[in-house]
Amino acid sequence: MVDARQAGPFPQRLLLATDLSARCDRALDRAAQLARQWEAELVALHVLDPTASPDQTLAWIGGANHAQLLQVAAQQLSRDLGQADVPVALRLGAGSDVAAKVAETAAREHAGLVVTAVSQGGPLRQFLLGSTVERLARSLSQPLLVVRKRPHGPYQRVLVASDFSQSSHHALRTAAQLLPGRELVVYHACMTTLVGLADAAPTGAANLEAEQRECAAFVEASALPDHVRVRCVVEEGAVEAALARYVRQHDIELVVMGSRGRSAVMSLLLGSTAARLLEWLPCDTLLVREPRADG
Q1: Strands 230-236 and 254-258, how do they pair?
Q2: Which of 23-27, 125-129, 159-163 reaches the highest mean pLDDT?
Q3: Can you point out the beta strands (E) in 12-132?
Q4: Which domain holds residue 40?
């Protein structure tokens, strides 16, 4: 068995957290695709919460015990992963604190990446769109990939959302490491200050040019290998609306962002912006925690 703690450019073990809903099938397919691409092992985790699934609730009320419910979940998980064509290990847990179980399993299995989905209902919806997203993002040392779109092959159009912080540097380097050969769009949204109708346009243009220069300096300071292709894009506007618009217009498949920073992009894990971005971005999202933020 390959140990994900071994040094290498790609994770050697991925953790898929699934509630077995149809929506999580997309996360399963993406996790399997990445495992094949990286020649990695896939660990699939389902946390049983009988109160979150109508059929499990009925079975529980009807007298089924946890062992029986876990057996049913194991059978479904085994069927779902039967065509994954990668080494797969199944893990089952129970309890209402899904985030804690995911973090615990990721650490125990030495996973290099955690993959999950925004579900229409059930524990993963509460896990991702409620306050638990902050807890998990803070507790995981691994990057967290939130899958929204059906995969049609490896990621091609990748964007790194940046506020020029150290957290953004780490997110950019992680994207370059995990997705070699892809052009990376470093995206920054800025709010310009309008001081008056007469000079509003030049002030806005000057601010935008300054932000573009800072973006170029940010990329240079990231010390990426020479072969990594990077293109800076700086736009005016609030990050949620501007970023979502750019993603749609350019058919971006994956947005990568850090979990800490000085602006709205990187403080997304500190409040309701997290839920808004996960709701609004019409693509997959990779949340990368800065290593020195541990502890």
Answers
A1: unpaired
A2: 159-163
A3: 13-17, 41-48, 88-94, 113-117
A4: 13-147
Q: 61's torsion region: left (phi>0), alpha (psi -120 to 50) or beta?
A: alpha
For residue 192, what pLDDT is reported? 59
Closest CA to 53 of 68, 69, 65, 67: 69
Query: 167 and 82: one domain?
Result: no
For residue 233 the two structure tokens come to 């894009």
Same domain, 131 and 182: no
Tokens 């109708």 belong to 197
Per-position DSSP letters for 132-190, written without gaps between them: HHHHHHHH-SS-EEEE-SPP-SS--SEEEE--SSHHHHHHHHHHHHHSTTPPEEEEEEE
Q: What is the pLDDT at residue 248?
A: 95
Same domain, 74 and 173: no
Q: Is residue 88 part of a domain?
A: yes
Contacts (Cβ under 8 Å, ≥6 apart) of 193? 203, 204, 207
Of 136 and 143, more confident:
143
AA identity, residue 60: W
When divided into structural domains, the chain yields a total of: 2
Tokens read off for 217: 């300096």
Q: In this predicted model, what pLDDT tens digit does every residue of 170-224 receive, in sequence order?
A: 999 999 999 999 999 999 998 755 444 445 455 567 888 999 999 999 999 999 9
Specify whether 106 is located in the same domain as 171: no
